[in-house]
Design goal:
The chain has 283 residues and is mainly α. Helices cover 69% and strands 0% of the residues.
């Protein structure tokens, strides 16, 4: 008795493949090597389709998928994945990391306004989390990234400075403090540069009283500014323009004494010799 072998699967595969492996000339089959290529190609499509249908099932799955999307610069998809984690697993230990990653994703896209909001939200929800100090640092960085030239509005400079100082107060031993201190120094210098730029503007406009106010603030708040000699010179000139010769002489004298190597010294000495007698003598 002859045993019949079931060939349905093979016939089914041939039925699927036959349209694909035919030449444009009907009735003529492709060469075997091309047929094999098509088999592998179609098999790959089937496997890809199956994989694409697989959805994350656990918080860890969502976290891995979101991280992969973020690494591939698919930030919008990554945020959606992290948000799904937050909504579907409200008690998961991965929630805090997902919240932080949403903020990081916005920062990577240079969407600093929304990123700052999300970092702040993270701090409010997870104030004792190990990432809390990093969130505070990133809040400052969001403002730092928006700082403008020193002759423009310095609102973001002030915001960044406050945020870095908050980091220093709240987490004084944190490993991010050295980096924050460097930023604080640079931000303070930018503010000093801004004060000097505004003072120069007022001086050129003949608004000497306004210039004096800016310069006095610069000297008091930023006493280590490298442009302090320039600030003193413009201050003395402003007093001179207002005919307040006694104050002008004192400021010129201070400049000469404190900054003997300054390029403003020779001019200050010349101005001192031209001033009316006020009881202060030039040595």
């Amino acid at each position: 008795m002859r045993i019949q072998t079931k060939m349905a699967p093979n016939r089914s595969l041939r039925t699927i493949l036959s349209p694909a492996i035919m030449h444009s000339n009907p009735g003529t089959l492709m060469k075997p090597r091309y047929a094999i290529i098509w088999v592998y190609f179609l098999a790959g499509l089937v496997l890809f389709g199956c994989a694409a249908k697989e959805k994350p099932a656990t918080p860890e799955d969502y976290m891995r998928l979101g991280n992969q999307q973020s690494a591939e610069k698919q930030q919008q998809q990554a945020r959606e994945t992290y948000q799904d984690l937050l909504e579907k697993f409200p008690e998961s230990a991965q929630r805090a990391q997902a919240q932080f990653n949403i903020a990081d994703s916005l920062y990577q896209e240079k969407n600093y306004l929304e990123a700052r909001f999300e970092y702040q939200k993270f701090l409010e929800l997870h104030p004792a989390h190990p990432l809390a100090s990093r969130a505070q640092y990133q809040i400052a960085m969001c403002s730092l990234q928006q700082v403008q030239h020193h002759d423009r509005d310095q609102r973001h400079t002030q915001d960044a400075l406050r945020a870095f100082r908050q980091l220093r107060r709240t987490y004084p031993q944190d490993e991010l403090i050295p980096q924050a201190e460097v930023h604080v120094l640079n931000l303070r210098q930018r503010l000093a540069d801004h004060e000097l730029a505004v003072a120069r503007f007022y001086y050129r406009k003949g608004a000497y009283h306004a210039a004096i106010g800016r310069l006095l603030n610069l000297i008091q708040v930023y006493p280590t500014s490298p442009d302090l000699d320039a600030a003193l010179y413009i201050l003395a000139k402003s007093y001179y323009a207002e005919e307040n010769f006694a104050k002008a002489q004192r400021v010129f004298r201070t400049l000469v004494d404190r900054f003997p190597a300054s390029s403003y010294v020779s001019r200050s000495r010349a101005q001192l010799r031209q001033l009316p007698v006020t009881g202060i003598t030039l040595q």
